[in-house]
Amino acid sequence: MECSEALDLLYESFDAQIGPAQQSLLNGHRRTCFACAATLAKAQRFQDLIRRVPQLTVPRGLESRILDHVFTQVGRASKQQQKVVRPVFGWRTNWRPAFAGGGVLAAALAVFFIVHGLLAQRALRPPDQTITASVQGSLQAIAPDNRTREVAEADTPLSTGEVLRPTGAQGAVVAITSHLAVALGSGSEVQVSRLHLNQQTGAADAVYLKLRRGTIRVNEVLHRDVSPIHVATNQATFVPTGTSFSISVKPDSSDLSVTQGAVQVLMPGRSFSVIAGHHAHITKTNIIRDILLKPIKKLHLK
Amino acid sequence: MTKVANGDGEAFAELVKRYTRMLYNVAYRYNASAAEDLVQETFLRAYQHARTFSGRSKVSSWLYRICVNVCLTYQSRVGAPMTDIDDVNEAELLIREDERPEVMAQRGETFRALEDGLRALPSQQRMVFILRELQGLSYGEISDVLGMNEQAARTNLCRAKRRLQVWLDPLLV
Q1: Which site in A19, A46, A167, A257 is 20 to 30 Å from B163, CA atoms measured?
Q2: Domains in chain A and their CATH numbers?
Q3: ipTM over cut 0.95
Q4: Chain A to chain B, count of Cβ pairs less than 8 Å apart?
Q5: How, if at all, do strands A270-275 and A262-267 pair?
Q6: Highest mean pLDDT: which of A108-112, A133-137, B89-93?
Q7: pLDDT per residue over B71-130, tens digit each?
Q8: CATH: 3.40.50.150, 2.60.120.10, 1.10.10.10, 3.40.50.1100. Which one for B83-173?
Q9: Are A177 and A204 in contact (CB under 8 A)?
Q10: A11 CB near a chain B CB, below 8 Å?
Q11: Nearest Cβ partner of B21 from A50, A58, A115?
Q12: Which residues of A touch B34 (CB under 8 A)?
């Protein structure tokens, strides 16, 4: 028996997929072949390792985000179908399917009522996308309709789509929850791209910020292993795992510095962690190679 | 599933509650950065196509099949080239000091090293490994979910394990 065959047989034996005759062959090979003894021993350790891989816990709020996503998508599809149909038939023809016994409008209405029923039964609705944050320092909050308000040393509502710009030379700190604060550096600009609230507690369980310009520092004390905040730049998404970190963005690059804990960096086709005391430089092109080839440097914070 | 097909929100919420963790584990091991989106898309498709569930297979197998399709479609759409372990040259491995398995081992990051190795496997091998070794599906179920015969599943698993064992070699002492 070839050593490579023995390895395959061993893998299959872990799976209880080999018969007595093959088991006997394998045992004989293991007794006599010293060349692959180490490999087979490692295969056993490898199998032990696999058996110890833990099941992951689900990120906070994922189930409700799934329900929101499905509802939104199904609702959108329903509206699109109705838009196609209405100009053709007019309002009176809303009754027509009941008599005609079918047609596109019937399908559209069916979807609509399913969604409506879903809403009624589950009280599903788009999440309330406004939270109250506490601001230290001063900043400008610009709503999607360009209405601007100045906030200084006060609580303020924070909504999806709003853009925050610190106005003082010292920047501003936005406390989003009792355990999550974001310090906006002077000259920075951040958009609140998505907020998701826990419908039971009303607290933010997912916060997505888009860093458009400058530097921010995130301080987060986590009670669980999954972070509620994701900070995105044009190059990557940064997810803390119980940590303090800062991110600076330039048109073609992002810099991440982690001072406590670790931050997971999510990029297309790849993710990796940056641990406390380390720095990562991420560029737009040839992203992975640039990150991995760059020597990890100690971060010296002033 | 009949209730879900009829638009019963409670039934759908129950489905989400019962199977989110199972699907999240598959999606995360397949592509950590897109795991949440992949799970959301899986449930969206399940909701939209609930009427096509025939009851011949288990609900979990049906959901696995959707999830696998979503994952593979995502991978082909994104087209992000995954690093193939066999294609990584020695010099590059030396430079990637922070990510080398033995360094991870010193930091107690054995499982993360395994995940990194897993993500570098070809899609089919990765999925067979996830379903068999991490989710505990039988070869029959894998065959059903991936649309390959059982022998092909076994072959893919052996290849995946060979590659992973080489990748993790420094940890297996």
Answers
A1: A19
A2: 3-51 (no CATH), 62-122 (no CATH), 130-293 (2.60.120.1440)
A3: no
A4: 134
A5: antiparallel
A6: A133-137
A7: 888 877 665 444 444 443 433 333 344 455 555 555 456 777 788 888 888 888 999 999
A8: 1.10.10.10
A9: yes
A10: yes
A11: A58
A12: 266
